Structures are given as structure tokens and as C-alpha cells.
Automatic annotation (TrEMBL):
The keyword Plastid does not apply. One of its GO terms (biological process) is cobalamin biosynthetic process. Its EC number is 1.13.11.79. PANTHER family: IODOTYROSINE DEIODINASE 1, NADPH NITROREDUCTASE. It comes from the Bacteria. Homooctamer. It comes from Paracoccus methylarcula. Keywords: Cobalamin biosynthesis, Flavoprotein, FMN, NAD, NADP, Nucleotide-binding, Oxidoreductase. It catalyses: FMNH2 + O2 = dialurate + 5,6-dimethylbenzimidazole + D-erythrose 4-phosphate + H(+). This is 5,6-dimethylbenzimidazole synthase. One of its GO terms (molecular function) is nucleotide binding. Residues 25-192 form the Nitroreductase domain. InterPro entries: BluB, Nitroreductase, Nitroreductase-like, Nitroreductase/BluB. Belongs to the BluB family.
Length: 226
């Protein structure tokens, strides 16, 4: 017999619950330099990973894996990979931005007690996955949804999280022994934090700023460039 579970009524959030969700969204920050050395208890880390694991995914593919990295020698190889990539990165910016770029702290690999690589197993679910038939990259999008869930849950738990993407993919693959069908999607640094920036650190440091929302909304103006 086929099993089914009927949809339950959509419970409304209380005002406090709703405010808490928005607070997590609006005060979530990318953390690089504010990590404390205190360890993250295993059950708390598991809670965060459970939040990630409840992300939406194409065809319920759940293509993610979570590689937990705490070993200092692995971290130090990752840090070296970052350094190599970052030396290339700085040269790509116009000369007048390079000094500011070089002053930015863009990772907390060694300081964060836990590093996490969130990967996407592109073969999970077989060749044909519902919803992925016409856009193969939806598995990667799903994995990014898991990262965002993790990021928001971490914020609610007082855990800082920083995403580091300045790597040569081949370095991450080789250090973490990833097979070809597994893609490293996000390299994350996690740890307790004493304080958080009130605005994106890149904005506080004059690198970029949040765009006005109204400039990004297009409604019934299909003829116009966007
Ligand atoms: C895909 C992706 C990749 C990266 C980032 C984010 C995302 C989504 N961010 C963090 C990014 O700079 C930050 O989110 C924005 O500046 C906005 O700041 P808040 O996250 O709101 O604090 C980031 N930060 C950093 O210091 N080094 C990095 O390599 C990256 N890479």
C-alpha cells in the first residue's frame, strides 16, 4: 500500500517568532576576523548541519555532503591554497583598488575552530532527477540553499560563519580527496564570535555597498533593460 501523509495546517508564526526570523536574516554576517578559539560542541554543530539538511533541493536530490575539517595540518594546507589564489586575485583588480584589497581580511581558516566544506555530489539521484532535466546546475543551487540555511541557523546560535571562495578548485579537490563527480561548493569557517559588524564588512571598509532595493525591482516594465 502506498504511504501518504496529509498536509498539516500552515501554522502562523507568533510575532516574536516572525521577528526572530527577520532578525537572523538582517543581522547575519560573513565573519573573517572575529572568531574566538572556543570549540563548537558536537551537538550544536549537528544542529547546524540538520538545518542545512532541511534545505530545499531539486527533486529532493539532497546532493550535499558536509566535510568537517578540524585538523590543523589540513587547515594549514587549505590556508596555503588560499594564499596562492589570493596572490593571483589581487592582480586582477585595477591598480588603485589593490592596496585596499590587500588590507581586507578574507578568511578565518586557521582561527575558526571548525572548517566545513559543503560539497555537491552531482551523481546523487541518478541520471534523471525531477526538476533537473533541463537545468543541470539546479543541484548546485540546492547546495547553496543548504549553505544559507546553515548560515542563518549559525546566526541564531551565536556562531559566526565566513565563506571563503578564493581557491583554485583543483587545490580543494586534491587536499580533500574529492572524486570528479563531487564539486566543492562552499568552504566555510565557523566559530563563536564576541561581536558582529552591523553592516557587511566590505561596506564598513569602503569596498562596496548594498544597492538600493528599489533599483533592483522590475515590475511590468518588460521592455526596459535590466
Ligand atoms: C558565494 C560567496 C562567496 C564568498 C562570500 C559570499 C558568498 C555568498 N563572501 C562573503 C561576502 O563577502 C559577504 O557575504 C558580503 O560582503 C556581504 O556581507 P554579509 O554576508 O552581509 O556580512 C566571502 N567573504 C570573504 O571574506 N572571502 C571570500 O572568499 C568570500 N566568498
Amino acid at each position: 500500500m502506498q504511504q501518504s501523509s496529509a498536509p498539516a495546517p500552515a501554522g502562523r508564526f507568533s510575532d516574536d517568532e516572525r521577528d526572530a526570523v527577520y532578525r537572523a536574516i538582517h543581522t547575519r554576517r560573513d565573519v573573517r576576523g572575529q572568531f574566538l578559539p572556543d570549540p563548537i560542541p558536537d551537538d550544536l554543530l549537528r544542529q547546524l548541519l540538520l538545518a542545512a539538511h532541511h534545505a530545499p533541493s531539486v527533486g529532493l536530490m539532497q546532493p550535499w555532503n558536509f566535510i568537517v575539517i578540524e585538523n590543523p595540518s589540513v587547515k594549514s594546507r587549505i590556508r596555503e591554497a588560499f594564499e596562492r589564489a589570493n596572490q593571483d586575485a589581487v592582480r586582477l583588480f585595477p591598480a588603485e583598488r589593490r592596496a585596499l584589497y590587500s588590507r581586507l581580511k578574507l578568511e578565518g581558516i586557521s582561527e575558526a575552530p571548525v572548517n566545513l566544506c559543503v560539497t555537491c555530489d552531482r551523481s546523487r539521484g541518478g541520471d534523471v532527477v525531477l526538476g533537473r532535466t533541463h537545468n543541470r546546475d539546479t543541484d548546485i543551487y540546492s547546495t547553496v540553499c543548504a549553505v544559507q540555511n546553515l548560515w542563518l541557523a549559525a546566526r541564531a546560535e551565536g556562531i559566526g560563519l565566513g565563506w571563503v571562495s578564493i581557491f583554485d578548485d583543483a587545490d580543494l579537490r586534491s587536499i580533500l580527496h574529492l572524486p570528479d563527480h563531487v564539486m566543492p561548493v562552499a568552504y566555510l569557517c565557523l566559530g563563536h564570535v564576541a561581536e558582529l559588524y552591523e553592516e557587511p564588512e566590505l561596506q564598513a571598509r569602503g569596498w562596496a555597498s548594498r544597492l538600493p532595493l528599489d533599483d533592483l525591482i522590475f515590475r511590468d516594465r518588460w521592455g526596459e533593460a535590466r
